[in-house]
Amino acid sequence: MKKIAIIVHGGAGPDSPFIRTHIKGYREGLKNSVEAAYLILRENGKAVDAVEAAIKVLENNTLFNAGRGSAINAKGEIEMDACIMDGASKKSGAVSIIKNVKNPISVAKAVMLNTNYKYLGAHGALDFAKKINMELEPDSYFIAEHQFDEYTKIKMEAFDSNGELAEEEINQRMHGTVGAVALDQEGNIAAGTSTGGAPYCKEGRISDSSMIGIGTYANNQTCAVSCTGDGEYLMEGVIAHSISSVMAYKNRGVAAACKEVIKIENKGVQGDMGVIAIDSKGNIAIEFNCDRMHRAWKKGNEKTVTKIYKD
Amino acid sequence: MKKIAIIVHGGAGPDSPFIRTHIKGYREGLKNSVEAAYLILRENGKAVDAVEAAIKVLENNTLFNAGRGSAINAKGEIEMDACIMDGASKKSGAVSIIKNVKNPISVAKAVMLNTNYKYLGAHGALDFAKKINMELEPDSYFIAEHQFDEYTKIKMEAFDSNGELAEEEINQRMHGTVGAVALDQEGNIAAGTSTGGAPYCKEGRISDSSMIGIGTYANNQTCAVSCTGDGEYLMEGVIAHSISSVMAYKNRGVAAACKEVIKIENKGVQGDMGVIAIDSKGNIAIEFNCDRMHRAWKKGNEKTVTKIYKD
After folding, report:
1. Is B21 a catalytic residue?
2. How would DSSP label each residue in A146-209?
3. ipTM over 0.90
4. Would you call B124 and A214 a contact, using CB atoms and an 8 Å cutoff?
5. Is residue A77 predicted with pLDDT exceeding 70?
6. What is the pTM assigned to this prediction?
7. CA A1 to chain centre
8. Of A118, A207, A242, the CB nearest to B235
9. pLDDT tens-digit profile of A184-223?
10. Among A90, A122, A217, beta carbon nearest to B97
11. Residues 6+ positions from A236 with CB-CB distance below 8 Å
């Protein structure tokens, strides 16, 4: 069997009692995600399809902030963003602030494969999802108990303090964006990212996850990258494309490029950042600047590795 | 007076009878845009404010596809995208698929200055614009005669042909996205881009113009860039950030970097691409791969130069 590999992440940021309480569930979720992708890669499936499969598992798991279990915004609603990119063709698809679709990553893939567009938002994205018969769910499906508790807590704090919490204040206590990068037997790589956004964020806030070059990027000549953390800082640094550019223009390997962008170029940045990356030779890289990054990977016949905190 | 400079563009793409008929109006519009920005720069105003002023002039001019005069989508509606970035702080603001605001670039600037977000879309963006009392206009304000003719023509073609034109087909006969880059007396640079999207495009289609690193990017250490052309190809090449990366990692000047990205890296790409760029020393660059790019600039005390076709 030729070299295959899959890495997934389930968000990066500060540690929390909630994470410690649910650590077993997180590890299981990450492992299931890796294994869903691995099955596809082993059967000579495409990297893009493996990335989609890995992300769907995490979107369907309430512990992660994507799909079911997404963060609830200040309006009490859930809006989701997702993006997928194929490193062989450099084609991509993305959706932002989409509601009610069970798997935003699959809508993003359909945008890539079945339209001449790359990026659809809001009602237009939902309309497209309906037209191609994507699975829909009612609002209640997406709301997880811990996300509702978080929403209520922030709302109460707002009520207790100044009457109203500034909607513009970002609260990102519960980072849990998910993402995956994969290498298939043909030597093609792909990346994808999906998120439920930031708790109590303003309606219409678009995250880095859906943005090509920021949260997601793939190019067979360099690498496939998926990012997580404080989205607004990832935008400022154009993180995914910076890693690719360091490889392309400074001739660095994937691990060195991730380290250079996260630990040197963005040293001192006040936001949390985490990246997973892979190149077409099967070299993998994981880099983050915070307490923990939910992550798991499997290379070739090696066992699946699952980690939450620093080594 | 220290070195100041402003460049604006009004879209790049194929030539057309409409452009030839209205060439005087286009030249006047570009000149007015440059001069609005220049007044600000001369009075020691900020590059970001000069960029906003230049773009507002073009948004208010029906000849350009941004603000009033925006392309009409397949649903018969106008949705607009805009982005602005400050090279000194690398802070940015953007809005996508926003309706009814007279000047989307000003909402983008307000997102940058008055929120902790960088990117708002659809209803959330409009809601924010209303909260901060941005000037609104009714739907009818935005619809220009030539855009309505274009919309009707495509719709009739659809009716005459197959009953319905595939909404996914991009029609970009009327590229007219606008953008500006500027250098102020403090040595800071900024970039901004605003668009009405593509004629008869799908509702919810988000353009490159609103995407940091794709259509717009600014960083005092490298350059400020605004792009125009076939958005989906600009996304694939992550054009604005690629130019910055070539400067940062390959130590090229701004003109050489623009040429390398447009004429070498993206040689043979089937989409139209045009870029304007400036660095903090006042070097400017304009590069495009198609028949024409509406553009104008003014450096220091030199006269304003206005061009439509190749030299």
Report:
1. no
2. HHHHHHHHHHHHHHHTTSS--TTS---TT---EEEEEE-TTS-EEEEEEE---TTPPTTBPPGG
3. yes
4. no
5. yes
6. 0.95
7. 28
8. A118
9. 999 999 999 999 998 889 999 999 999 999 999 999 999 9
10. A122
11. A269, B90, B91, B92, B118
